[in-house]
Amino acid sequence: MSNLFPPEPLDELLTNQILSSACDKMANENIEEAGCAVCGQLKPRKELSKLKSVKNHLHVLHAEGVTRKEHKKSSDPIKEFSGPVLDYRCSHICDSCRSSVRKGKVPDLALAKNLWLGEVPEVLSKLRFIERLLVAQVRHTCCFVKISTGQRKMKANALCFETPVPKMY
């Protein structure tokens, strides 16, 4: 291997391979996402199937006291939604939730495990991208730092957001 500087320009074949790879990774079928009705997460369409495929197994997602209908006044009675705890705006189920439901188990991240938040209020539905990041529901990681005696200690919560593009072209 020679360390020539500057490197030689790319040949046409390698340039075409790089561009083809980038175009394939950015094709609609690789980027398009939809929500899972069971866990509410955005997943690639490739990992989703129709919710109808498990409609006979949805009884495992019934949970008392998890859902509430919206009420505008404190005097309005508190009512629950009937049926399985699902996001009814979504018509698909992800592969991991589907395999759990078919086994008769509630998936770990299912809305039926007290993760149901309800409809997004209109005020929050029109936020800009940065504002959405600020109010996003995330899992907090508690950080502890071990230090030598006599120094101050620090404990904090770290918010981590994954970069949406894992490979840069």
From TrEMBL:
Sequence ranges assigned to domain DUF6570 in this UniProt record: 103-168
Stored InterPro entries: DUF6570
Protein name: DUF6570 domain-containing protein
Organism placement in taxonomy: Eukaryota, Fungi, Dikarya, Basidiomycota, Agaricomycotina
